[in-house]
Specification:
Helix content: over 70%
CATH architecture: Orthogonal Bundle
CATH topology: Tetracycline Repressor, domain 2
Order of helices and strands: HHHHHHHHH
CATH class: Mainly Alpha
Radius of gyration: 19 Å
Number of strands: 0
CATH superfamily: Tetracycline Repressor, domain 2
Number of domains: 1
Distance between the termini: 63 Å
Number of helices: 9
Shape: elongated
Strand content: under 5%
Structural class: mainly alpha
Amino acid sequence: MRRTQHDRSTSTRADLVAAGRALFATRGYHAVPADEIVRAAGVTRGALYHHYGDKQGLFRAVVEELERELTAEVEAAFAGAPDTLAGMLGALDVFLTACLRAEVRQISLTDAPAVLGWATWREIEAAHGLGLLVDVLSRGMAEGLIVRQPVRALAQLVLAAVMEAARMIADAADPEAARAEAQQVLGAWFAVLTVH
């Protein structure tokens, strides 16, 4: 059966993202030339420009794919917990553990802010994490677990704190120790937010 143009385009985009992701994760954005990405993807340089504009456009697509996956992991941890409070702590644990992965550290936490710019990186993080946080915190407030307060402002501050913890892990000489410290401090902070 012949593939449609849409099928070919979808396949080309997927091949470019997969090749870019593997190379960016291994060597970092600046050490990977566009020609190497298109060779690894088995497509032409014109295909890269047609679908993503340039290497930076492809990189953004890679970052967004990774963020979607991380958000799904965090959502699954929250959904699989026996209650909202356990879900919040479990989701935090899953996210901080994901920050130890070389791919996440290199692409999302090291290269994304530098390559895309701080404002764009924060916009992507907010697009994937902020809505989830608003939902989780709203549920906690509705259940009487979290002190009632402006939920969107709280979600933005929690996201900022969690992302700062992620950057600490990415930059640390000992990422495991940085992760443990960040989880301890954030866990204590989240406990203060709960109704006693």
